[in-house]
Amino acid sequence: MTSALGPQFLDPEWLISTFGLIGILVLVFAESGLLIGFFLPGDSLLFTAGLLVADGTYLHQPLWLMCLLVSIAAVAGDQVGYFFGRRFGPSLFRRPDSRLFKQENLTRAQGFFRKYGARSIVLARFVPIVRTFTPIVAGASHMHYRTFVVYNVIGGTLWGCGVTILGYFLGQIAFVKSNIEFILVGIVAVSVIPIGIELLRARRRNRRTESGGR
Q1: Sign (positive or negative) of CA dihedral 15, 17, 23, 24
Q2: What do you get for the CA distance between the two ends of the chain, in Å?
Q3: Domain boundaries in the chain?
Q4: Are 36 and 129 in contact (CB under 8 A)?
Q5: Are 110 and 139 in contact, with CB atoms under 8 Å apart?
Q6: pLDDT digits (tens, 9 = 90+) for 109-121
Q7: Burial grade of 104 (CB within 10 A; 0-12, 13-18, 19 or more)
Q8: CB 152 within 8 A of CB 75
Q9: Can you give the pTM of this predicted structure?
Q10: SS3 for 2?
Q11: If we measure between CA atoms, which residue out of 90, 78, 71, 87 comes closest to residue 147?
Q12: How many C-beta atoms lie closer than 10 Å to residue 25's C-beta?
């Protein structure tokens, strides 16, 4: 079965109805710090979670508890990613491409990290794929641990609470509730815009480099 968002296992409402709160926390943790989590629907998952909390469907926890637990899962995931990058970073950059691992994703996160420095830990939270690889790059780059923790907590809290609260309040609007699938598609589309912009900029830089070398 598929939806407008793709396969059923990527549909936020199906994931929440099947795995509940524990499933949300596991997926947030995985997307935040595990290499295999880059394809998971983090933004749309949290937005849907907030909507379902407001609606009382599948999730019966209070909003504050949902936000707290999601933020903890997000911060913990980035911590794991940081230590993974610190331990295996150099070898990771030499790893060949596979079905679940692409060097371009790591390179993109590395460019993002170099451009924004410590702020990238916060900013990457709102950029799919990049948010999975940025803590790994931070660890591989030996970013000062205390600095990483501060920005990690800020980013994890802003993302975890912000997107969930947005879903909670917008989910009470009749139009949003009756068009939720299209809203989620819109969230996914908007969230990948930064990636598209970076790709276009990279292509332009490459063309200028090639033309300059002739």
Answers
A1: positive
A2: 52
A3: 2-212
A4: no
A5: no
A6: 777 777 778 888 8
A7: exposed
A8: yes
A9: 0.77
A10: strand
A11: 78
A12: 19
CA distance 65 to 67: 5
At residue 29's C-alpha, the angle toward residues 155 and 125, to 5°, is 25
Q: Is 39 helix (H, G, I), strand (E, B) or coil?
A: coil
**Single-letter residue type at 14:** W
Distance of CA 79 to the CA centre of its chain: 14
pLDDT for the residue 2: 36
> Can you give the length of the chain in residues?
214
CA–CA separation, 13 and 9 (whole Å): 10
Residue 141, classed as helix, strand or coil, is coil
- For residue 28, give the amino acid letter: V
Burial class (CB in 10 A: 0-12, 13-18, 19+), 48: buried
The per-residue pLDDT of the chain, averaged, comes to 80
200-207: long-range pairs with CB below 8 Å, 24+:
202/111
Spatial separation of the C-alpha atoms in residues 23 and 191, rounded to whole Å: 22
Task: State the number of CA atoms in the 13 A half-sphere of 79 facing the CB.
Answer: 12
The one-letter amino acid code at 91 reads: S
**pLDDT the model gives residue 41:** 74
**8 Å CB contact between 154 and 122:** yes
